[in-house]
Amino acid sequence: MIGAGLGGVGIAFGSANAATHVNPDDAVRAVFAARASSSAPGCIWGEFAEGRTVRIVATGQADMATGRKLDTDTLFYGASLSKQFTALAAATLVAQGKLSMDDDIRHYLPELPAYSRPVTVAMLMHHTSGIRDSLSLLRMAGMEDVGRASKGEALDLLFRQRDTAFEPGSAYSYSNGGYLLLAEVVARVSGEPFDVYARKAIFAPAGMPHAYFLSDASLRPGSFAHGYVRKDGQFELRDTFPRFSGSGGLMLSMADLAAWEKDVAEEHHVWTPAIARILLKPGRFNDGSLVDDGKGLAYAGGLHLGLRGTEHVIMHGGSAEGFKHAYLRLPDRGRSFALLCNRGDWRASTKLAEALRASGTPLPGLLHRPPQGVFHSDELNADYSLAAEGDNLLVTIRSPLSDGAQVLRFEPGDDGRYHFGSMNLAPTDDPARLVLRRGRSGDIILIRRAERNER
């Protein structure tokens, strides 16, 4: 199943008149080889069409000490890619009638205090519960390396919280603590440890050969990719991730994702219509409005979904100190893409966009290359000069109100925008127009100087 898509077929890149043909495998490989070598950590890229594996490209090493290379069977710490599978585990119990999305979680977790408003299963799943982030609590409690934390220690901190961060159901706030509690609800309803239930209900029937959830245990040496960060020109090992599951904790390979894509598209052993209805239904606030993740998408069952430009997308990222991942489905096209990286100095959303373009599948609304040039706003009476600086965007602001030029460095985000504090710049389908936002100030349109002068 996996090997069938590895050959690749040459396709044309560049202008309509270009005669150069580039093998898409080589084009994708170049995206990850530009700042890496065979003796550095790297990434594995997978493309899928209607459940069929189109292409898998791996570059770099899983273990720099031994020289072991990344391949389709290499296990990665999934970080927040885990959340869709934690939500899936809960959804299987909902589909069986053993759990309800509207259940008060204190029915299963009586250790929690009675909050001002009951927290429901749906609120945990959609990040609207107000449950505080467990990793933040661990760090504030003095644990610098959260990889040393046990599930019991993380749960104890959550159970100690006297109230939620806000009224449950009234706002969106991404919470690892909420997903840790969701996994604990699954364990108590199923009567089995969370990792055991996930293996029986998800990984085995879906035919995922290597995937499993961690359960306060060490990893088997030689089976997984170590995480690395770059410091002073060298790579340092960073396997600093919790060994418990719910918010993270999933160990998976590209072979596992290939099997999962096949189940979603064709076999439906796990991804049944009932499960799809639960996981693809966007959350709602108490007032009935859709949950907005703050990046222009709704949040459903461990998945962001909505429009990027004119394209429907279902997506989620995963990030730990030494790991950066991205997962994207294009339901209108029946296409899916996965990126697993064991180097923390790369931004997954940027590499995802570059690999999409290299494979001949550009997506409206994702960053492909930084916009450049001079843009003007009549409303601000200001010029914004944009220049690429690696993946970042160097923005120079000049106006009659400024004391000289103000230079800001905007960084690309997973939402298709460039960010500097509360400010962000968003490319549009028109390369001559950008949208500038700051907090809740509303949209300011920036128009490329050359076009403005022509008018």
What would your notes on this structure say?
There is one protein chain. This protein is α+β, with helices and mostly antiparallel strands and about 450 residues long. Among the domains are: about 75-100 and about 210-360, DD-peptidase/beta-lactamase superfamily (Beta-lactamase, 3-Layer(aba) Sandwich); about 375-455, Lipocalin, CATH 2.40.128. The protein has helices at about 25-35, 85-95, 120-125, 135-140, 150-160, 175-190, 195-205, 255-265, 275-280, 350-360, 450-455; strands at about 10, 20, 45-50, 50-60, 60-65, 70, 75, 210-215, 230, 235, 250, 300, 305-310, 310-320, 325-330, 335-340, 375, 380-390, 390-400, 405-410, 420, 425, 435-440, 445-450. Helix 2 crosses helix 9 (about 275-280). The radius of gyration is 23 Å and the shape is globular. Residues about 1-20 and about 450-455 have low confidence and may be disordered. One of its GO terms (molecular function) is hydrolase activity. It comes from Altericroceibacterium indicum. InterPro entries: AmpC-like (IPR050491), Beta-lactam-related (IPR001466), Beta-lactam/transpept-like (IPR012338). This is Serine hydrolase.
